Amino acid sequence: MVEILESCLVAPSEETPKHGLWLSNLDLAAARGHTPTVYFYRPSGDHNFFSVEAVKAALSKALVPFYPLAGRLDVGRDGRVEIDCNAEGALFVAARCDYTVDSFREFEPSPETRRLFVPTADSADAPLVVLQ
């Protein structure tokens, strides 16, 4: 079971350009959705090993040069799907579960491991990036 501790939007730490950005023809043909990936880290022994605030601050800084990732999909005036670079932010979810890294020695995607991901809203206004 996954326990959600916090869920918030993280915006770029500085002002970013506001404009529409066309998707490539390849992006237009690809299926829309998030690609779940997971990284496991063993604790270092430091009680601040994984600071949620530090991760959010780093994400906020990273969204400055990669500002389109803080936008939303939209339809431009010409009817073409584009990224609305509006700095609304990336979805950040802090969650925990009772599993350990050793529980995933032979990690393979499965319905059981998929349940570890917090579900995201599949709406037209969904963030382009979701971090958990």
UniProtKB/TrEMBL annotation:
Transmembrane segments: none annotated. Pfam families: Transferase. Keywords: Acyltransferase, Transferase. GO terms for molecular function: acyltransferase activity, transferring groups other than amino-acyl groups. It comes from the Eukaryota. Belongs to the plant acyltransferase family. This is Shikimate O-hydroxycinnamoyltransferase.
